[in-house]
Design a protein that fits this description.
Elements: E1 9-21, E2 27-39, E3 43-47, H1 54-61, E4 69-74, E5 77-78, E6 86-89, H2 101-111, H3 119-129, H4 145-158, E7 163-167, H5 175-189, E8 198-203, H6 206-212, E9 215-220, E10 225-231, H7 243-260, H8 283-294, E11 299-301, H9 302-309, H10 313-325, E12 329-330, E13 335-338, H11 340-347, H12 350-361, H13 365-376, E14 382-383, H14 384-394, H15 400-413, E15 418-420, E16 425-427
Parallel strand pairs: 3-8, 3-9, 6-7, 7-8
Antiparallel strand pairs: 1-2, 1-4, 4-5, 9-10, 11-13, 12-13, 14-16, 15-16
Length: 429
Amino acid sequence: MNVGNNGKILCAAAGISHEFAKPEGNRLKVLDNINLQIRSGEVVALLGPSGCGKSTILRILAGLIKPTAGDVFTHGEKLAGLNKGAAIVFQGFALYPWMTVTENVEVVLKSTGYPFGEIGDRVRETVKMVGLSGFEDAYPRELSGGMKQRVGIARAIAVKPELLFMDEPFSQVDALTAESLRAEVLDIWEMAGANPQSILMVSHDIKEVVYMADRIVVLGAHPGRIRTVMENPLSRPRDYRSPEFQRLVERLHDIISGHEMPDVAVEPVMPPNFIEPLPNCSASEIVGLLEYLDARGGIADVFQISVDTRREFGQIITIVKGAEMLDMVDTPKRMVTLTAVGKQFTKASPEDRKNVWRGQMLQLNLFRTIKELIDKHPEQAISKELVQEIIVMHMPFENYEPLFDNLIRWARYGNLFSYDETSETLSPP
């Protein structure tokens, strides 16, 4: 279906920049001068690290967020309000738990004014299209993760949007299910004459974007900027194992590692109380990386780490970022090396490791802010809602729920504070 640069421009970002006001009055820029066109007959992928503004771009193009500067155009007209030609598949399934599969799709059609007499046929057609025939009367609690996301996809395509926006739609399902869903989404898109005409997807998975996208937009962070745009020359269907596929994956590896792990460190100018989002990785994953490096003399090639650990490259970059935030690794070019703190950690006893980890966490404003709040009220547990409010206040464009979960996982490893799952409160360790 790809028509390259000859397709009609469906949606465009022209000089988009975005920033938000922090409580103390400072403004934090999250996007800087984004220029991007989505043409008919193509799949475009936004690829970049956490915090680079991928999801913010998607929401601006959908009309959910008004940018601080610049404009969005649809069919050459300036967008005012929601982009009525677009539908979104979110990372979370976002289903109504009290509704069946059929009802979850119906509610979207009803809300958009779809002809009442045609709703039943459209629901049956869409449910069949996503492979859920026989599950029409099932509730979300009765479905697997992959089936829930199929419902999410059904809700989006049921309204026949010309643009399908997908925000890391396969990140919450297992690898095999994700592979199947990617192929099925492309099958739906490639149906002759059918909407959606084009897809804009957000992803951190390099193999995923090489498999799906015709154009790959690589973003940098703080603030989010377009670093480069790569055309994907591979014909469909694409084979993950082909030499051409692997070469393109490696080329993207080089581009990303060059931007995200530069040889010359460039320290961004940040306010002293700036709170940076935590990379989506666990303490055990960071510890595993440090132990891997220690067993290899304290240094390893980032690509080799991905191969040896059988982890997706984007996730390895995320884990490296986590270790780097804790000042336990450095990243000259493609290499990852243990710092003095990292070496101290790997040589320490289990208890001393926790002490080192705790000390490094307290170098980060997020953990220090929460710790100070708990220390001020030692007799009173701090609620989960309060901590989530702090996260939302400082990082309004981040998904606060997984970030909170990550905060707890890191803090537990370093015994920084306790978290009670039942009462959903934080207290001194």
